[in-house]
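Thread: adenosine-5'-triphosphate complex, take 2
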Amino acid sequence: MPEMPDKNAIEVRDVSKLFGTGDAQFAALDNVSVSIRENEFFTLLGPSGCGKTTLLRLIAGFDYPTDGQILLYGQDIAPLPPFKRPVNTVFQSYALFPHMTVGQNIAFGLEMLGKPKAEIEARVAEMLKLVRMEALKDRKTSQISGGQQQRVALARALAPQPKVLLLDEPLSALDYKLRKEMQIELKRLQHETGITFIFVTHDQEEALTMSDRIAVMSAGKILQVGSPWDIYDRPAVRFVADFIGETNFLHADVVSANDGRATVRLSSGKEIPATFPSGSSPQGKVTLVVRPEHARVAAPNGTSAHVGHIENVVYLGTDTHFHVRLDDGTPFIVRQQNSRNGHNGFAKAERVGIEFGQDVAQILKD
Ligand code: ATP
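Output below.
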């Protein structure tokens, strides 16, 4: 794991944002608190309408919180208008000036700040090099491709050396291949400039690939903040487990729980170890989450956590998905890597046992 600096670039403290009036009033952000560290690639991930853009707009200063505070390096930024904040935004639509050249677009923010001509020229050259667009400096932005426009938008936003760059779904207009390329490019730019990036997406794969940490949002709240590993392997609540990748949910009873480790009894009667999120103290009936690739199917035997029958087998080249119906009626998906000489040898309707690896079951918070 890379070592993380612990200085906070942005602190969002108890921020709420209400829209509408009277009965129609609702909270686009509902008492949100989160700290974003300096030099971090931080992602706000959640479904459409969960409040991601609203939070970015408050940080940028395009709108004001109804309640709460936003601090930039410890200073409350409420009194600062957007152009006085050391924060810049890259929009989904790029918002480039079509009648200007690539170079003029990149120079724009610096000219607004009244920087000397020589400094602007040097900075534009540096930015063109950073985004690998030197050859297209004098081309109008209406005459370059979508991917190239994206690079210009990034260069324009980075040129005034903001402390924080806000990126609102900047890759969503690109086709799949270009999007993959730009994901790598964005990571490189963040690494080379050392600027804190706050990236908004509703694409869980994109969030897992790019981020140092992810905040998963739903209905105006942040449900969990953590590294991609935390979010994928240690989801705290059902929404996070469900939103990120494929997941199995199992019922269990807690036998004992201490120090983040528990023993739980499955409906099969089998007892297995499980982890649980810090700050919770599970007891009684709980829901467990197990990722499909952390379980395997085998001939039923004394070590099987559950027994069931295969309802469907989906061969996917490197992997096979087994859709199993457990004896207690719960559906359960196993994703198993195929061996070199073919598939895994279990067929539809066959009875199988489910086996778990070590530490793969996580107890969800209520
Ligand atoms: P998307 O991924 O679709 O952009 P989002 O997570 O960014 O969604 P927001 O744009 O932050 O969501 O919107 C959160 C909620 O607030 C939505 O229900 C939206 O309709 C509402 N909303 C946003 N701006 C306003 C506004 N100016 N007036 C009224 N409602 C608004």
